TrEMBL record:
It comes from Mesorhizobium metallidurans STM 2683. This is PilZ domain-containing protein. GO terms for molecular function: cyclic-di-GMP binding. Pfam families: PilZ. Residues 9-86 form the PilZ domain. InterPro entries: PilZ_domain.
Length: 94
């Protein structure tokens, strides 16, 4: 069953560079936002990326750090639900 079938909201296709900020020793993982809605997004990450179940997703073009919780994982894709926003951490260079 495709994840599209589980959505109650349509996600807009986008292609935005973003950074997963884990807070663990100020760790960062680069990713691409493939589609997005106010309540969540699909991310494309490197196949060997270590992404925790909860993190901040900083999207520079939006100027927002989204609090994200992983809902599903498939190969190099991750579906997340947004639980809020917060200011970009001061330790992040971007």
């Amino acid at each position: 069953m495709a994840e599209d079938e589980h959505r109650d909201k349509h996600r807009q296709r986008v292609l935005k560079g973003a950074t997963i900020l884990t807070g663990v020793t100020n760790s960062e993982v680069k990713c691409m936002v493939r589609n997005m809605h106010a309540e969540g997004a699909e991310l494309k990450v490197s196949p060997d990326a270590r992404v925790p179940d909860e993190f901040l997703l900083y999207v520079p073009v939006d100027g927002i750090a989204y609090k994200a919780v992983v809902r599903w994982r498939r190969e190099n894709r991750i579906g997340v639900m947004f639980t809020g926003t917060e200011p970009k951490p001061s330790w992040h260079y971007g």
